[in-house]
Amino acid sequence: YWLSAWLGNVGYATLLMSAAAYFFPVFGNGQNLASIVMASVILWGCHFMILHGAKSASFVNTIITIAKLIPIFIFTVIMIISFKMGIFTHGFWYTPNGKFQFTDVMSQVRSTMLVTVWVFIGIEGAVVFSSRANRRKDVGRATVLGIIIVTLIYMLVTLLSLGVMRRSGLANLSQPAMAYLLKSVVGSWGAMIVNLGLIVSVVRAWLSWTM
What parts of the sequence cross the membrane (predicted)? Predict the structure, then answer.
């Protein structure tokens, strides 16, 4: 457990600093000395915020959650406008002969499922705070609703992206790919919005992880 918690902090720190590097090149790829120092400051900031009170941390968590949805909404709207069915259907099955082949398609599904596991990481954290809920029933409803919303968001982002840029192009995008995909459509401000959203999102996730 403690090893996973430690690795989680490292993962959040690296992702946060790599996103911040878009605005502050001093952070490089998110793994240099400057990144370590800044990530440590942020981690301790989350720690002291939680010590100040769970309610204060939860309030900040709620505000950040709302803020991070704005870039996702902007991205989704622009992708819908830019969506081209011809690009989406090009090489649809991604098989050697271009037709449906059960073995190849199931292999793709299996690879996708291995990644999908990490999409819902942290959902178990709701159990930690369930004892503080006014009604325990609300915890179950919120958990199910959260899973449904997250699933829909991931489906929209993934499927719409495949209708804007071909698979080979998406595979060669720098990380975060969502930022550079939006940049290819609307220009630099698109990458800026997504990277800001990513920073906010990681801070929120890191706060929840620490809680």
Answer: 7-27, 33-51, 72-93, 113-130, 142-165, 185-207
**pTM over cut 0.85:** no
CATH code matching the domain that covers 2-83+120-210, chosen among 3.10.129.10, 1.20.1740.10, 1.20.140.10, 3.40.50.300: 1.20.1740.10
Mean pLDDT (the chain) is 78
Of the chain, the percentage scoring pLDDT greater than 70 comes to 80
In whole angstroms, give the CA distance from residue 72 to residue 198.
10
Per-residue pLDDT at 111: 78
Q: Which of 162, 154, 164, 191 is nearest to 176 (CA)?
A: 191
Name the one residue in this structure whose structure tokens are 């259907």: 89
- Specify whether the CB–CB gap between 68 and 197 falls below 8 A: yes
Give residues with Cβ within 8 angstroms of 141, minimum separation 6: none
pLDDT tens for each residue of 94-103: 776 667 777 8
In terms of DSSP H, where are the helices of the chain? 2-20, 33-52, 54-82, 85-89, 102-119, 125-129, 136-161, 167-171, 177-186, 188-210
From 59, 80, 68, select the one nearest 156 (Cα to Cα). 80
